[in-house]
Design goal:
410 residues, 2 domains, 6-stranded antiparallel sheet
Length: 410
């Protein structure tokens, strides 16, 4: 039994056929609007054959649904999914699984990489990892104030209203929440290299963090940090045509959500304002561009959205690094909103001498090049700390699973 998906920017439909060697007909009885007919005349209808057929598609759903279960079953499902689709290994760590952190050993700018492996956020992070090639699903950063008080700054903190915002949380409070988190987070501390720390402008970092405090998480540009190329960022069966169709469906079901997630960002790429998705598609065609090309136009760090600058968890940290001088002399030629979590931990800005890591971080026992401060499994960050910053970094990088091969200087 073969499962086919038929898509235009205005609809997604599907049908299944018992025999592939017979002629079959899929009928569209009415066009959603005149613009859909014009689009089909110009571009046709995108047709997708699900590679595993109906049974395989259902089995794939069986693989995905348990990822969001906050149970041991859900955790096993997440580990199995990442092992199968990304080749991740999950080796048990030596005890203790949580570190006794000495505040004096932690400095402003030190990076935190988090990986949740069960529950709602565990499931979302697993899918994000698979799509982007990152072996972590969230990030945060340390800041230390003039009184020596340690804070954790992050984009994506869920407040009491359930909104995800940019926050600054005292370390003791943040760590207490991490220890109680039932999504079983694995957390790594990636200290900055001493040479990088020496040029880290702490005052500028604090000024940036305070200017962003309370702003919403960067949903506007979340997907655009991942899509850099015409075809080499999509895990099968995704491609730009299906992405466009999914966007269209969500626009009809949740127009506010769609505006927040992509409409404003697409308008930025065209230099237009307040066009809805179908207006964006029409304008793109007038300019002789494909929707695929539009998606690959790099994000700009200086773009202002309706609710201010938009930064995901990792873009927030790297924007702080820009403000603090970490990327000099490439500060003006790097757009950190183009970076994924994987791109961030591959930057060659972190400590590279294991003997300088604090004794409490257990790096020698775990045989890791960084400090894992929480979690029962060793965190694997492939190509960690290997790529020197350069101009226009990560603006044209493929990330197709399962290898996620990255050319140099893409």
């Amino acid at each position: 039994m073969d499962l086919y998906v038929f898509a235009t920017p205005y609809r997604i439909a599907w049908d299944y056929y018992m025999r592939s060697n017979e002629n079959h007909t899929f009928e569209i009885k009415a066009w959603e609007e005149a613009a859909e007919l014009e689009y089909v005349k110009q571009h046709g209808i995108a047709v997708f054959l699900m590679p595993s057929g109906m049974l395989g598609t259902l089995l794939s759903l069986v693989d995905v649904v348990p990822l969001f279960s906050n149970t041991g079953w859900g955790q096993d499902a997440n580990l199995a999914f990442l092992q199968k689709h990304m080749g991740t290994s999950f080796q048990k760590r030596s005890a203790p699984w949580s570190a006794n952190i000495r505040r004096e050993d932690v400095h402003s700018g030190d990076f935190l990489a988090l990986s949740k492996i069960r529950g709602r956020w565990g499931g979302f992070q697993t899918l994000e990892k698979w799509v982007t090639g990152a072996f972590a699903g969230h990030t945060a950063v340390f800041l230390k104030d003039e009184n020596g008080t340690l804070w954790v700054a992050e984009s994506g903190y869920e407040n009491k209203k359930g909104d995800e915002i940019i926050s600054m949380t005292p370390w003791d409070e943040w760590w207490g929440m991490a220890l109680k988190d039932d999504s079983n987070p694995q957390i790594a501390l990636l200290p900055l290299h001493p040479d990088v720390r020496a040029r880290f402008n702490e005052s500028a970092a604090w000024e940036f963090a305070r200017s962003m405090y309370g702003k919403p998480y960067g949903y506007h540009n979340m997907i655009f940090s991942w899509i850099d190329t015409m075809s080499d960022n999509y895990p099968p069966p995704l491609d730009a045509n299906l992405v466009m169709a999914i966007m269209s469906m969500w626009t009809r079901l949740q127009p506010h959500y769609a505006s927040n997630m992509w409409n404003e960002a697409l308008n930025k790429r065209l230099g237009t304002e307040k066009l809805d998705l179908h207006g964006v598609i029409s304008e793109t065609e007038k300019r002789g561009l494909s929707f695929n090309q539009l998606l690959t136009i790099p994000e700009r760090d200086d773009w202002e959205y309706s609710d201010g600058k938009s930064t995901t968890c990792v873009a927030f940290i790297l924007s702080m690094y820009k403000a603090a001088g970490v990327f000099a002399p490439f500060t003006e030629s790097i757009q950190v909103t183009e970076f994924t979590i994987r791109d961030a931990y591959m930057l060659k800005i972190f400590e590279d001498n294991q003997t300088r890591l604090p004794s409490w971080c257990n790096a020698a026992a775990d045989r890791l090049p960084f400090c894992q401060i929480l979690g029962e499994y060793k965190m694997d960050l492939p190509e960690y700390n290997t790529i020197e910053p350069y101009a226009n970094m990560n603006e044209n990088c493929p990330s197709a699973p399962p290898t996620y091969n990255r050319p140099s200087r893409c």
